[in-house]
Amino acid sequence: ELVASFIVGPVADYLDVAVVFWIALPCACQALIPLAMGFLPEVQVPPSKSNRLEGAKISAQIRPFVLALSMAVGALGLAVVGLLGTELAQVFYAICVSFVLCCMAFWCLPRTLAMCNLYMFLQDALYISISGALDFWYTSDAKCLPGGPAFDYTYYTTWTQIAGIAASSVGLWVFQTVLSSWRFRAVFWVTTVLRILASFFDLILVQRWNVSRLGVPDKWMYMLGDAIIQPFCGMMAFMPAVILTSKLCPKNMESTIYAILAGFANFGANVSRATGVWLTKAAGISTEEGSCNFAGLPALIVVGHIILPALCIPLTFCLIPDAHLDKNLVGKHTRPSAVCCCPSFSHASRRPAARLHGPPRRISWCSDTTTGRCVAARG
User: Fold this and answer.
1) Where in the chain does DSSP place strands (E)?
2) Pseudo-torsion of CA 38, 44, 50, 53, nearest 10°?
3) Mean pLDDT by 10 residues, the chain (379 residues)
4) CB neighbours of 340 closer than 8 A, spacing ≥ 6?
5) CA–CA dist 133, 140 (Å, integer)
6) For residue 270, which of 35, 91, 134 has the smallest C-alpha distance?
7) Helix 312-319 to helix 111-125 angle, to the nearest 10 degrees?
8) Which of 36, 40, 93, 210 could form a disulfide linkage to 216, CB 3.0–4.6 angstroms apart?
9) CA 204 to CA 326: how far, in whole Å?
10) Distance (Å, rounded) from C-alpha 144 to C-alpha 348?
11) Which of 54, 72, 52, 50 lies closest to 62, judged by CA?
12) How far apart are CA 113 and CA 116, in angstroms?
């Protein structure tokens, strides 16, 4: 990323933006070399298991499988609607699918895990992405935006990106040395507040208060504000989310549950982008030469980067467990979830139901996703 930052800005300024993609193409293709030469150690699937589904594994973990499959279908549908539908159709589809998936998560996952998953989804979805409008505002020339900052690409994508990488590293160090022993709730609401405060720098720049009232040049204001504080706050918000996700994964299902939670966060980011595209158009923002209009941009910043993200602050105390980051959460804040039915036939299942206390009941043997053992679920 650091090397790319040094290249992209000057190339875009002095050559052409298309050249950047031609430079990036061979860099992206080099990933095929270790794959083609077998550098990644893999165990070949036996012929008896190739080209067929693991039915026993799916039936033993049917609820997480259904949730993951539903999320994949929902994400694919969002891509199709984005290609063929209108901006309003994308937002409507994204909200409806998000509601269904979040409800399904409470059916498929332990309650505490589902609540944390809902919070992290909302944390990404409520921070509306309006980066397209902001990028155009910062880089538009005097013909489109008289009196605007008119940043060149060398400054906007090179020097600010380098400063952002340094700020992210500082944010990681601060998190490790200061916040790593805090409680999850405190870390989440503090980082949310910092992220909201960082958005005020965008508002100050767009309203031109830095020039008219503070006397601070645009490049200094952007560098000291958005270029540094946003990556710093982003890293501070990213780390507790990763730690919480890893600590809540039940035993023997770590990869599956982590993938589901990460998928929800990515889907929340897609909802944020779809909503941002629609709001940008609804606000009347135009970047066409001769008809540039950024009058609605301050309102977008206030709503999408200040008001909506602030809703996550009270939700922190409702959805996030009140536990320390350096403590184990599995078992204390999660309950075992039984996924029926276990494919193996244990010796205990040979006992007749009449020997159990109470009247005879139907017994199904299930896989406990926390311990990985088969347990009896009476029905």
Assistant:
1) 338-340, 363-368, 374-378
2) -100
3) 70 72 80 78 68 71 86 89 88 91 88 88 90 87 85 85 87 84 88 87 91 89 83 82 78 78 87 90 81 88 93 91 76 44 38 39 42 43
4) 62, 364, 365, 366, 367, 377
5) 10
6) 91
7) 170
8) 210
9) 38
10) 77
11) 54
12) 5
CA distance 72 to 267: 10
Residues found in the chain: 379
CB atoms within 10 A of CB 40: 7
- Residue 20 makes CB contacts below 8 A (sequence gap 6+) with 7, 8, 11, 12
Give every CB contact of residue 338 below 8 A, 6+ residues apart in sequence.
366, 367, 368, 369, 375, 377
pLDDT at 99: 92
How much is the pTM?
Answer: 0.75
Q: Kindly state the tokens that stand for 354.
A: 């009449």
